[in-house]
Amino acid sequence: MKPHYQIIIIGAGPAGGNAARIAAEAGLDVLLVERDERPGLPLCCAEGISVAGLGAFIEPDPVFIANEINGLKLTVAGGKTVSFSPKDTIGYVLDRPVFESYLVDEAVLAGTDLLLNTFAKGIKLDKGQPAVIELVQNNTDFTIEADFVIAADGVESQIGKMAGLKTELKLKECETAIQYRVSGIEVEPSVLQFFVGQKYSPNGYIWVFPKSSDCANIGVGLNPGEADNAELRGYLDSFISENYPLGKVDFVSCGNVPKFIGFEILGKENLFLAGDAARLIDSLSGAGIARALHTGKIAAETILEGIEQRAKCSEIQRRYRKTIEKEIGWDMRVFQKAYPIVRKFTEADWNCLAEFLETYLKNQKAESVNPAALIKSALTTAPGLLRLARHIF
Amino acid sequence: MLKIELAACLSCAGCIALCPEAALFLTSDSLRVNQGECTLCCLCVKFCPVTALVIDGKVRLLNSEKE
Ligand SMILES: Cc1cc2nc3c(=O)[nH]c(=O)nc-3n(C[C@H](O)[C@H](O)[C@H](O)COP(=O)(O)OP(=O)(O)OC[C@H]3O[C@@H](n4cnc5c(N)ncnc54)[C@H](O)[C@@H]3O)c2cc1C
Ligand code: SF4
Ligand code: SF4
Predict the structure, then answer these.
(1) Alpha-carbon span A120 to A21, nearest angstrom
(2) How many domains does the structure of chain B reveal?
(3) Is B52 near ligand 3, meaning CB less than 6 Å away?
(4) In terms of C-beta density within 10 A (0-12 exposed, 13-18 middle, 19 or more buried), how is residue A132 classed?
(5) CA neighbor of B46 nearest in space, from A229, A221, A204
(6) Treating both helix axes as pointing N-terminal to C-terminal, what angle do A371-381 and A347-361 enclose, rounded to 10 degrees?
(7) Side-chain half-sphere of B2: how many Cα atoms within 13 Å?
């Protein structure tokens, strides 16, 4: 450990791990700081990711892949079930603690210094000066300086907040979620299942993401702005007792799935936010692993280019925002606009969407389906849904 | 007073994102609350997926006495 680094990355999740790996491989002097003893724990995730979402950033490796997925199934309470089953693999269920350790190991192999069990409790930014990070490890306080900081501190996003960015979430901008790892059940091992409608969740959904043919991550989310979080667990318990009465709950996890709230919180001075810390997550599905890998990569590459060109921080910030807007902006905004509409879907609306999907997905190849384009198309062309989205898109 | 039921809390950090006062923080050990900063706004209580946050009975009484 040194008193000064070119980049300090706070948080060893997918955003921070990938940023550290890329920055260190490019030869930068990098420190990665993680509060927990082991990256990826506690697990707050259903571990699903698309083939493209993983493959664009890291070579898929059986070491961290629990299961391959080649189908999706949406069930509407008291109504339709629609399936998408292309022949090829479309996604994976990861083993996230192993995945995170893998990313961190790669970063360390490339030369990253790693501090585990270390909490970043403060940051001082001063124009033209290195950032000062206040750290605590085993009750000992110390500071380290850095030319650049990547805050990849996940949903809590306190580093950005301390620096004056408005990362705080309102109740309507998040989803409260609980998940059980259930074993001793029979599940279709290669199909991700989604259950929607009042019976499952008042304004979210239930997911069944199989880890194998007898074990799955089964969870439920709801928006606590409009529904009662105290009832969350009840939805999951009734679903499991109805569908998997013999299932054994191995462990419980929970978490906050933030909504995208705009590109105004990507950074300031020499501080850059990536992944959940910047709320870069798909508002509809809650998928954030791929966005975290992606924006961690963009942050590291933009800083690297800035260092090489001796660019001003304001210029690096401008480029960071421009690249993010170009690469994921359109999709993020479609999901952001669709979320408040879909959150209020009635069962009739869900059935209408299911009918639309049935026709839309027939004979589609997996790689030609863009989820954001699909949802926009549904909301602007399905006759039963037009009334909801007319003024939005 | 805001009470954290440590036996129920799963350290997901989700509540921290909502606190307007930055009164909650998760160290390497557990979730803590800085009582001096907490305004008892209840946002974190309304969020927690496992209802590990509660406003202590005494304070609720005090509040209702005030009303
Ligand atoms: C219940 C649930 C299910 C989900 N399922 C899926 C899914 O199936 N697919 C999907 O794509 N996404 C899913 N998500 C979203 C996904 O988990 C996140 O989008 C993703 O983890 C974001 O990665 P990140 O690197 O930005 O942050 P994180 O993975 O949250 O990592 C942040 C890291 O920073 C550390 N940290 C925080 N503050 C500090 C500090 N001050 N000092 C030091 N270290 C700190 C934390 O300990 C943590 O390790 C789910 C989320 C939830 C809650
Ligand atoms: S939201 Fe609940 S479970 Fe998660 S850290 Fe806060 S108190 Fe603990
Ligand atoms: S009650 Fe409000 S102020 Fe107190 S810790 Fe919870 S969110 Fe923060």
Answers:
(1) 20
(2) 1
(3) no
(4) middle
(5) A229
(6) 120
(7) 25
Q: What is the DSSP letter of A329?
A: I
Q: What is the per-residue pLDDT for B57?
A: 62
Q: Which pLDDT does position B62 carry in this prediction?
A: 40
Q: Tokens representing B57? A: 């009975």
Q: How far apart are CA A236 and CA A233, in angstroms?
A: 5
- Of all helices (H) and strands (E), which one includes residue A345? none
Instruction: Tell me which chain B residues have a C-beta less than 8 angstroms from the C-beta of A121.
Output: 25
Name the residue at shortest CA distance from atom 21 of ligand 1: A289
Q: Is the pLDDT of residue A126 over 80?
A: yes
Share of chain B above pLDDT 70, in %: 84
Nearest CA to ligand 3 atom 3: B38
The residue segments making up the domain with residue B50 are 2-64
CB A350 within 8 A of CB A200: no
Query: Which of B9, B25, B38, B55 has most ligand 3 atoms within 8 Å of CB, for mutation?
Result: B38
Q: How far apart are the C-alpha atoms of B59 and A276, rounded to whole Å?
A: 34
User: Scanning the structure block, which residue is given the tokens 């109504």?
Assistant: A79
- Residues from chain B contacting residue A277 (CB–CB below 8 Å): none
Helix (H) or strand (E) holding A121: strand A118-124
**Interchain pair A155, B43: CB under 8 A:** no
Give the DSSP letter of residue A168. Answer: P
Q: What letter would DSSP give residue A230?
A: G
Each residue of A25-82: pLDDT tens digit? 999 999 999 999 999 888 989 999 999 999 999 999 999 999 999 999 999 998 899 9
Give the C-alpha separation, A129 to A357, whole Å: 53
A292 and A18 in contact (C-beta within 8 Å)?
yes
Chain B residues close to A224, C-beta within 8 Å: 46-47
Cα separation, A73 vs B3, whole angstroms: 41
* Digit-coded pLDDT (tens) for A61-71: 999 999 999 99
Cα separation, A224 vs A94, whole angstroms: 28
Please state whether the predicted TM-score (pTM) of the whole model is above 0.90. yes
H helices present in chain A, as ranges: 14-25, 51-55, 96-109, 158-162, 232-243, 289-308, 313-324, 330-343, 347-361, 371-381, 386-389
Q: In whole angstroms, give the CA distance from residue A22 to residue A16.
A: 10
ipTM topping 0.95: no
CATH of the domain at B31: 3.30.70.20
Q: What number of CA atoms fall less than 13 Å from residue A82's CA on the CB side?
A: 15
